[in-house]
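hiii, so i know i said id send this last week but things got crazy w the move. better late than never?? heres the sequnce for the chain we talked about at the cafe, plus the structure i predicted for it. fair warning i was half asleep when i ran it
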Amino acid sequence: MNPVDYAFLIVAVLLLSTVLAGSLSSRFGLPAMIGFLALGMIAGSDGPFGIVFSDYALAQTIGVACLIFILFSGGLDTDWKLVRPIVAPALVLSTVGVMISAGIISVAAVLLLDFTPVQGFLLGAVIASTDAAAVFSILRGQGGALRKDLTGLIELESGSNDPMAIFLVGVALVLVATPQASLLPFAPSFLMQMGVGAVVGIGVGFLLPSFIKRMRLRGSGLSLVVSIGAALFSYGFAAVVGGNGFLAAYLAGLMAGNRDYTARRTISLFQDGLAWLAQVVMFLTLGLLVYPTQLPSVVGPGLAVTAVLMLVARPLSVFICLAPFRVFDWRAKLFVSWAGLRGAVPIVLATFPIVAGVPGSQTIFNIVFFVVIVSSLLQGPTLAWVAKKLGVQGDEPGVNLQSAARSVS
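okay and structure toks below
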């Protein structure tokens, strides 16, 4: 038989097994992401299947491609009427909040793990952002009771904070290469990236419905192909002209998802399925990269970073950033702090130092992976309980945390 045929069969078995593993983990009250990653580790070099995969550059490319569709789908499903009143606090959280979290983790890494300042900054930048895939998954449900302003705040923050984390990782990598480099030029660069990315994303999202109408693709499957092209174009064009592609992909979905056109529902459902496929592929790939035999060596550092992140960095960043916004009381702030889930984005970002050849980058990758696992196990399944205890449940049907928390990915 042709080796390509075997390859197709192996890929199919892996995808189906990954979905099964995610479903089984959900039945036991664990995040589906745990099942996805676990199967990847079982299939990897240290597992019984022994699939050798250590191409971090390829994994990084796969992760970026998957994140494009996850963010685009998240934007499509975000109700602008819901998030419009909380745009200001969400943007503060997604920028200043990420910087505060990164700074606190950086200091903790230097003091507790004996990292150099630059290594600490790199670890803080990688782990600072909440993960859109995890948050979008847990907040999509039927007939729940989370306050709508908190739903919008958490979703908008998670969809827009990746650019800041990516920017900080880029700054850290520059400092690794040239420690004497000045940080002043980075501020205009960041503003340009955000501005260009926003313009491209809004433009693509605005033109997508008009393009579908003019090409008479309302009831055609080609409209789904066009939506794929729009997601990739928004990222690619923004990146080529100096903007942030992830922000562009999210805003393109947000703009297109809140315009009225015939194919909107069909495209939204299709992109939702594509986003789930992207999550499965991404987590499976990242799981293959991990060597479980290396994780015991980072249990101590991983627990220390997790504790600082969950109990200090995230709460402080939330309380500081939301202090000017009186609509959020201390209960709401505590819940937002606990809802700062980490997922695939930090793991993908942790591949950047490895590809760049940064000393100690493998240790950073393993610590980040460990932190993501512990964060998902502790925060995902307990969101419903925390929401109930803090009394942040709303009167209108919104987000079913009891069922959604078990399927966070």
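btw The chain is about 75% helix and 0% strand. thought thatd interest u
miss u guys!!
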